């Protein structure tokens, strides 16, 4: 099971431009999970995707969005949590959160486990989970805290297909429910602040 003491929460691309009628229901679950995670004193990483001119998304998919604020902004529900002392913002221009900067950040945090939530199950969540697996981290994808925002295909089917791929390629046991994470967080004690020594 998840080693909370060696885990970071990876909140993938929960940005205004990725929230629509299909992905919006996951936002309260993600917010609740991030709130409980922050209370447990564990590190969290919030990624932000940025598109750019002549990107593969433009050239090959014909997708033109998320070039800047307000689309690239993290949703209001998470902005306070993303500014907490144990929170880190990671900007990226690719699907994965496991960029060189992301890997350096994770190594610096000395974590082994990544609890992954966010948008979209079939894109950045999937790629981040696969890359975490290949880079030696243990990924845990939170089924009810991820969602697809697909509009060209049925979002629910794409979401389930991505979870099936994650189960197959990363491990069926690596897809968990938010309630399982909550239970583990409830038993994780926050380290007490170090008392100053008297001289």
UniProtKB/TrEMBL annotation:
Keywords: Hydrolase. InterPro entries: Isochorismatase-like_dom, Isochorismatase-like_hydrls, Isochorismatase-like_sf. Its EC number is 3.-.-.-. It comes from the Bacteria. The keyword NADP does not apply. GO terms for molecular function: hydrolase activity. SUPFAM superfamilies: Isochorismatase-like hydrolases. Residues 7-157 form the Isochorismatase-like domain. This is Isochorismatase family cysteine hydrolase. The lineage of its organism: Bacteria, Bacillati, Actinomycetota, Actinomycetes, Mycobacteriales.
């Amino acid at each position: 099971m998840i080693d909370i003491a060696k885990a970071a929460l990876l909140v993938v691309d929960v940005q205004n431009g990725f929230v629509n009628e299909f992905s919006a229901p996951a936002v309260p679950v993600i917010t609740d999970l991030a709130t409980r995670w922050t209370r447990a004193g564990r590190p969290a990483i919030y990624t932000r995707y940025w598109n750019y001119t002549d990107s593969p998304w433009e050239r090959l998919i014909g997708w033109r969005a998320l070039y800047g604020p307000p689309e690239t902004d993290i949703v209001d529900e998470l902005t306070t949590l993303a500014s907490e002392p144990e929170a880190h913002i990671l900007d990226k221009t690719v699907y994965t959160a496991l960029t060189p900067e992301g890997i350096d950040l994770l190594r610096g945090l000395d974590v082994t486990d990544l609890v992954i939530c966010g948008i979209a199950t079939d894109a950045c969540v999937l790629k981040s989970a696969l890359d975490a697996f290949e880079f030696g981290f243990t990924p845990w994808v939170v089924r009810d805290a991820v969602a697809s925002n697909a509009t060209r295909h049925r979002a629910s089917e794409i979401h389930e297909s991505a979870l099936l791929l994650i189960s197959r390629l990363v491990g069926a046991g690596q897809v968990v429910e938010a309630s399982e994470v909550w239970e583990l967080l409830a038993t994780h004690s926050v380290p007490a602040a170090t008392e100053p020594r008297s001289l």
